[in-house]
Structure formats: C-alpha cells, structure tokens
Design a protein that fits this description.
Layout (H helix, E strand, L loop, with lengths): L2 H10 L5 H10 L7 H17 L10 H10 L3 E2 L12 H7 L1 E2 L1 H14 L5 E3 L6 E3 L6 E2 L6 E2 L1 H12 L15 H18 L3 H14 L4 H13 L3 H14 L3 H12 L10
Parallel strand pairs: 1-2
Antiparallel strand pairs: 3-4, 5-6
Organism: Pseudomonas laurentiana
InterPro entries: SirB1_N
Family: Belongs to the UPF0162 family.
C-alpha cells in the first residue's frame, strides 16, 4: 500500500490508529519498513510494561507507565545535532531514544492498549501529556509532573522570558495535529541534514494533513528553491503571502517572488 494513503486511512479508523499512522510516515522514508512488524514489537513492550505497573486504578497509572518506559531505556535523544531517527517511530522503538513527541506517541499507544486515560498536549517547543481532568501535565520523557509554574519555566527555556503562558498552549492535541507536528519535526531534521528530497516528502505531508500556515508553505518553497524548481517555489511563496499577517515577512516574500522567473504559460 502507498504509505501516504495508508497513513491517511489510519486517521479514518475508529478509534484512530495513531501510532500505526506514524509508522506509515516512517515507511515513506524506508520502503522496506513493514508497520505490522513494529506493531507486534509494541504489543510485546506493552506486556513488559504491564508487568511492572503498580496495583492502582487505571486513572492513576499514566505516570507509572511513563516511569516504567524510562526504566526500560526509553529516554529523550540528546544527540547533537539531532538526527531524523529521533522522530522516526521505527527507529525510536529500536534505539529507545527519541524526541518528546515520538516518545509521547509510543506512550499513548501503550496507554490505549492498557485502557489508561492519557492525551497529548500541543505545548510549544516540547510536546507534553495529560491525564484528562488532571491539574498537571506529564513529561513524556520520564513522567515528571509539570504544574503551571513548571510550564512557564519550560516555555521560557524554549522561547525566552518574553513569551507568556496562555490557555492555547495547554490545548489537547488531535491525532491529525500530532501527525502534522511529527511531519514538521521530520521536515526540519531532514533539512538540517541536507536531505532535501526526504524533507520535501515531509513538507508535502504537512500541507496535505492541513491546515497549513505561511511557515509551512515557506518551508516547502525553500526546499523547491534548493531543488531548482522555480514554478513550484512560486506557487508556495504565493500561498505563504496570502496566509502571512506579518508585514515584514510579506515584504520579503514579495521581493523573493519578484526575483523568480515569470510564470510559464501553455499555448493551445
């Protein structure tokens, strides 16, 4: 099956097959990858994790689940510069290292299989988890509890003291939003490592999952520029210009468009 179509089909299921969708994203970058093999590994891991969980109500098992995963070696990838394997779910399963979002997706899959309530939180710069209704968030890398003061500190470390915590930072992430964020992460990682064709696959997926923003179109336009595709670059720059609210960015986009070759026209 075409990996992109298989990924999108996972979003149509009830319940959504979120982790499998993430594996199909990885399959776009490795044609030999068989998601079923890694889903079987997750089932084995689920049994291993379950044995180590305390005898508590399922509503209290989210943090022990995350701590158990950490004890089994699933931790944040600290390699610098970070490589794409930190966001490719098959590699995360095998290496037991990954970005917070990748570890969160694994935790959500295990929690679902064990009937433990857990949801993703689209916190900027660092993906988090939450038990629905709880007064705190959870770090997917080890299970540390984060209260509002901790979230403000984390936000400050990521973006500086000028950025203030708001309710929008604590919203529950939908499956589509998580896959789009995973795709953005991969786009950035592949771009950083000069793999433009792989990054283009991720950039296309970001926009297909939608809704895309000006930065998403600009990122794909820059990849088309590096791949010497001026007409495709123009298409994305025009979309970025339509979506941008920043007057300085709009000026720069207009200047960049003016330096491109004119649109090609077909004669019939």
């Amino acid at each position: 099956m075409n990996p992109r179509k298989a990924c999108l089909a996972c979003l149509e299921r009830q319940p959504v097959a979120l982790f499998e969708a993430g594996l199909w994203i990885a399959a776009e970058h490795d044609p030999t990858l068989q998601p079923a093999d890694y889903l079987a590994l997750v089932q084995t891991l689920q049994r291993e994790v379950s044995v180590g969980l305390p005898m508590l109500p399922v509503s209290e098992l989210a943090q022990p689940l995350l701590r158990q995963l950490c004890a089994l070696g699933f931790q944040q990838d600290e390699y610098y510069p970070l490589r794409p394997q930190a966001a490719l779910l098959d590699k995360v399963l095998m290496r037991r290292r990954g970005q917070p979002l990748a570890l969160a997706l694994l935790s959500l899959e295990l929690a679902r299989g064990l009937s433990i309530p857990l949801e993703g939180v689209n916190f900027p710069g660092y993906f988090l988890l939450r038990v629905p209704g709880a007064d705190h968030l959870l770090d997917p890398c080890g299970g540390r509890r984060l209260y509002p003061a901790d979230c403000r500190e984390l936000l400050g470390r990521q973006f500086g003291p000028q950025m203030t915590l708001s309710a929008d930072h604590l919203l529950t992430a939908s499956p589509l939003q998580m896959l789009q964020r995973l795709s953005r992460n991969l786009r950035q990682l592949h771009t950083t490592h000069d793999d433009d064709l792989a990054a283009l696959k991720d950039a296309e997926r970001v926009i297909e999952l939608g809704p895309a923003n000006a930065s998403d179109y600009l990122a794909r336009a820059t990849l088309y520029q590096r791949l010497d595709c001026p007409q495709a670059e123009r298409f994305d720059l025009e979309h970025a210009l339509l979506l941008s609210d920043d007057p300085i960015q709009r000026l720069r986009l207009t200047e960049r468009l003016n330096h491109l070759p004119p649109k090609t026209t077909s004669i019939h």
